[in-house]
Protein 1
Amino acid sequence: MKFRPLYDKLLIKRVEQQQKTSGGIIIPETAQEKPLEGEVIAVGHGSLLENGQIRPLEVKKGDKVLFAKWSGTEVKMDGTEYLIMKESEILGIVE
């Protein structure tokens, strides 16, 4: 399935979290929190300004980003879980 977000929306896939602590303790999947880091899979064209112009997004496809715990809307496409969120919900780009 192909998906293209509109305007300032992003499609993000969460980055898998480590399943073992630094001390070697294995964390079961049911006890793990969802990661707050993800990879941008697709981006919209940009934000629509009041004067009708479109401001391009700073985030681009392939960027690793951090976001807040309750950000975005979870969707499932082709058996994979994604988040759809606005660029303003992104806390920062991981470099």
Protein 2
Amino acid sequence: MNKKHVPQRTCVISHEKCDKRDLIRVVRTPEKDVIVDLTGKANGRGAYIKKDIDVLEKAIKTKALNKHLEVEVPESIYEEIKNIIESK
């Protein structure tokens, strides 16, 4: 019997390989907007961040998402990610 394949992605902050469902995808759209992509299918440059408050705090402190997405990530995106993590 074959196990179902679970996609793996790497968190851009902690550099851990995790199941895709354990990560949050943040996308810079072609229009240079930044969105949280819960579907995992939005068009644009994506970065995955682990669903962990400590990882989120490190991302805010180091501005790693800004560097990875090559745009300024608004504070509202970090708030949205925090709400998603706390509601899981």
